[in-house]
Amino acid sequence: MDWTEIIVTVSAKDIETAGNIAQMTVPYGIYIEDYSSLEQEVLEIANIDLIDEELLAKDREHGKIHIYISPEENPAEAVSYIKERLQAEGIGYEISSDSCDVESCLVSWKKYFSPIKVGEKILIRPVWRDDFEPDGRIVLNLEPGLAFGTGTHETTRLCLEALEKHITNGCTMLDVGCGSGILSVAGLLLGAESAVGIDIDEMAVKASRENAKLNHVESRYTGIKGNLADEVSGTYDVITANIVADAIILLSSDIEKLMNDNTVYIMSGIIDTRLDDVLSALPASLEVIEQYEEKGWICLAAKKK
């Protein structure tokens, strides 16, 4: 089975932010075409002002990000995640794939998605796989569809490991950027009394509700379409945000109004180069109590001092 190449085209001014978002979808790097500063870069590097005509004909107004997805991963999930995060940043885009359409890729990818053990307590089971042994773990049944969040990415696994430590029986949970609902469902299975999931993507909200139903926790789950936490109120015992660093920074500026004195605020999706930015954006009243790391990705847990 061939790899899938996803090509994301954005305005040249947005290429850095879009590149950071794309980088979160794969652990092995991306390729960016950006010719907006072609003449200056050629002069600085090669000390010449003669440039090949083919290069001169390249689009200077837009950049292209090439993402390569292996057969074992989910191209549809990557596309859904990129679309959601670009929309959240207000970035216009075009996305194409040169090997297969997203739906076909999703069907093929399912063959490679096996049950996954996460942390000490959870086993994620794709609903189409019956060949698994719980080994005493809580089984989280998952049909990700086109929504981000399968447990295969480091950011989600780190969040789940943090949840295992901080979910207590009867607590309340808010999941910002819920995607497939994997974190909300895990929280409910681990003992939370109720969970609210919010996402900017209607498809993600629908997927999260379906996954709650698959795990028989739909009566305790509420899925809401909205930007960050704009559509929610009240306070929660556990808040998760598995989103990009810039979105965490925006959320953190107003997060205290959703926290009680003992709330644990779990942030993931932070690439290590953005850690200082995220830490700087945390309100002075909060302190980081735990830090989880895997392959350049970081998850933080914070509480009020």
By DSSP, the count of extended strands is 14
Number of helices: 10
The geometry reads as: globular
Q: Give me the Rg, rounded.
A: 20 Å
Structural class: alpha/beta
Low-pLDDT sequence parts: 41-52
Q: Kindly report the CATH topology of the largest domain.
A: Rossmann fold
Instruction: Give the name of the CATH architecture of the largest domain.
Output: 3-Layer(aba) Sandwich
Could you list some keywords that capture this structure?
single chain; 305 residues; alpha/beta; Alpha-Beta Plaits; Rossmann fold; 7-stranded mixed sheet; 4-stranded antiparallel sheet; 10 helices; 14 strands
Q: Can you describe this structure?
A:
The chain has 305 residues and is of the alpha/beta class. It contains ten helices and 14 strands. The strands form three sheets. The protein has a seven-stranded mixed sheet with strand order 10-9-8-11-12-14-13. It has a four-stranded antiparallel sheet with strand order 2-3-1-4, with helices on one face. α4 (75-88) crosses α5 (102-109), α6 runs parallel beside α7 (182-190) and α9 runs parallel beside α10. The longest helix is centred in the first third of the chain and has 14 residues, at 75-88.
